[in-house]
Amino acid sequence: MSRTRTPADAAPGDPLLEAEGLLEVDGLVVDLPVAGGAVRVVDRVTFDIPPATTVGLIGESGSGKTMTANAVIGLLPDGAATGGELRWRGENLLQASPARRRRLRGHEIAMIFQDPLGALNPTQTIGRQVGEILRRAGLSRAEVRRQVLELLERAGVPEPVTRMRSYPHEFSGGMRQRAMIALALAGNPALLLADEPTTALDVTVQARILRLLRSIQEDQGLAMLLVSHDLRVVAHVAHQVVVMYAGRVAERGPTAAVLAGPAHPYTRALVDSVPAVRTRTALAHPLPGTPATPANRPPGCAFHPRCPLARERCRTEEPQVRSVAPGRWAACHFAEELLQR
Ligand code: SF4
Asked: What is the pLDDT of residue 255?
């Protein structure tokens, strides 16, 4: 008996793939075990990543952004329980076998980490590591070498013929991140997941790596999920932004519209904390108060102890994410008021 074909059966170019969005995160829940129970570190998170689009996932530490990214790549800690759906071209990855997740990882979905030194193998040359996935695909030695050189060049590694013989410790931080990008591109992914890719780098190198990521995304029509705590990074690279707070989505929408007129007081506080992002003022106002975390989430709106606009209702009633303008969603009882200011 023949079974129904799913996107997992489709080859690149198959119309079956075009019928679905690329990645749809739909009501994603992640519970982590703790002594005596579990903590919901990702709570009903919903957004999607259309093809050839960069989505920035932003929030303070403990907001659940990295855990959301880890769920997408299939690298959650042992004992984590998940709910909702993570649809990759229509296929729910939360139901996929570990073998299927492994096959996707590094091929269709690739990842760049904050610490390339920890992600690269110190005992192998850069060329060997970038070529690994190509060798496994059965390419000849000459073809592997040709493609490795091309990948290193595309990632902006100078003198690739020489540098492919170097070991990770012989590279500077920025150059290691470029090697990591070459390695991520080797599997010809459709989605690149970049978790704080420039946090460990100095400001000048950061700007170069961000420009590189943006040009690769545009040239190759890649989709990208960019996780960052830095609004300037997201403002520079992302078409869409998802703002997370205490494991939940606070606001999402097109980056330019969200930053120019936030619909959530938390986004507004983030914007006000970065003078370069906000055009109305040159002064930065540090975020007030202590971030709530999923383990100590206040009742009602989790942001209410820090919110300058909080009212009685905010202390008891949790705001749900809802459409507040075309293409815009926010979880604030008074989002429309904020948009009209
Ligand atoms: Fe502030 Fe209330 Fe909106 Fe929460 S619901 S962000 S406390 S105004």
From this structure: 97
